[in-house]
Design goal:
With 331 residues, the chain is mainly β. The protein has a single domain, classed as Tachylectin-2, Chain A (5 Propeller). It is 3% helix and 41% strand. It is built from two helices and 21 strands. It has a five-stranded antiparallel beta sheet, with no helix packed on it. Strands 10, 11, 12, 13 and 14 form a five-stranded antiparallel beta sheet that branches. The chain is globular, with a radius of gyration of 19 Å. It binds beta-L-arabinofuranose. The site of beta-L-arabinofuranose has 12 residues, from β2, β6 and β15.
Length: 331
């Protein structure tokens, strides 16, 4: 099913050629149809992909849809790439997918069941498939992380590949964030040299929704803060010299705008290697919406200044210009 955002602005100037007209098309916001949240955006095999949480009451969050695009404007829905029917231990609250390709497999890490204590079954699981469109099947038959460590609820994971090729999982709700090292086939965790498996790297203000990237030797640690059910949900960030921090808060980069939307948070960053364009993909609540689950996925530009600081994001209804992977980016 192909979808173009309702707000798509096609400013095709009458006397210009097709190139200018194509560049004038904008994505509009939101970019995905329906209620979705916690989007993680990627580029796989020459296409943009977004993996969001299906933002419904917990009992209905039993699957994940994915979306692909060649230009950030037209999105194709891939329904139910993961279904709890294929994950014996997961029954609800399937949240915040994080996906990474390795060795011909796509690994999808997800939270399930929203466990409140170590006696409950659930946590962070791994499923894998040969294509980003799935179908993803449970890889371990049990959660990868099934308990609280350092106070972190096992949700909101992100898999991060460091510049030396080491893969880490960073995750955590309830105001605590841990980092752990993944083993080669993502079937388990490898203890650090000091014997610990989970290291806490929580910056001041952290609530949930961690996203990490490395750029020009700087480790950017971003997170969501405020309550996700309210208007003040926001994204802040810190910069460190390694994935272990220490991460000192720099400031907020994404928040509500009373003219555009409320509750802007739980984001990811999208960037094609060699491109000058950086994007932030996030969820927000349309003006006037107060239902906690009525969240929509949007995209806007992200800018770094000359010192590498992230400039506050201007959230928009127009979204971003069409950006075709085939034409605009160097390999
Ligand atoms: O979508 C469910 C939860 O809401 C996520 O895990 C949190 O980060 C918040 O966005």
């Amino acid at each position: 099913m192909r979808f173009r955002a309702a707000g798509v602005v096609a400013v095709a100037l009458l006397c210009t050629g097709p190139t200018v007209a194509a560049q004038s098309v904008r994505s509009g916001n939101p970019i995905l149809p329906g209620w979705y949240a916690d989007p993680e955006a990627h580029i796989f095999a020459g296409e943009y992909w977004i993996f969001p949480t299906y933002s419904a009451p917990y009992g209905q969050q039993t699957f994940l849809d994915a979306f692909s695009s060649r230009d950030l404007v037209t999105w194709v829905k891939h329904p139910q790439v993961l279904d709890t029917a294929d994950v014996a231990w997961a029954r609800r609250a399937v949240w915040a997918p994080s996906i990474i390709e390795k060795g011909g497999w796509y690994y999808l890490f997800f939270g399930a069941n929203d466990i409140q204590n170590d006696q409950q079954k659930g946590g962070i699981g791994v499923a894998r498939a040969r294509t980003p469109a799935g179908p993803f099947k449970d890889f371990l038959g049990k959660p990868l992380i099934d308990a609280f460590h350092n106070g972190a609820q096992p949700i909101d994971q992100m898999v991060f590949r460091d510049v030396d090729g080491t893969y880490y999982i960073v995750y955590g709700g309830w105001r605590h964030c841990n980092i752990a090292k993944l083993n080669d086939d993502f079937s388990g965790l490898v203890p650090f040299p000091d014997g610990s498996t989970f290291k806490e790297i929580t910056p001041a203000g952290y609530v949930e929704g961690v996203f990490m990237l490395v750029k020009d030797g700087k480790y950017y640690f971003m997170w969501s803060e405020g309550g996700w059910t309210g208007p003040d949900y926001a994204v802040a960030y810190a910069i460190g010299t390694s994935p272990f921090g220490p991460f000192n808060r720099v400031g907020k980069i994404l928040q509500q705008d009373s003219m555009v939307a409320t509750g802007a948070g739980h984001h990811s960053i999208l960037h094609a290697e060699g491109s000058a364009n950086w994007y932030i993909v996030y969820h927000r609540r349309p003006l006037g919406e107060t239902d906690r689950n009525h969240r929509v996925v949007s995209i806007d530009e992200l800018h770094f200044d000359a010192q590498g600081l992230i400039q506050p994001v201007v959230i928009t209804k127009a979204g971003v210009k069409a950006d075709s992977l085939r034409t605009s980016h160097k390999p």
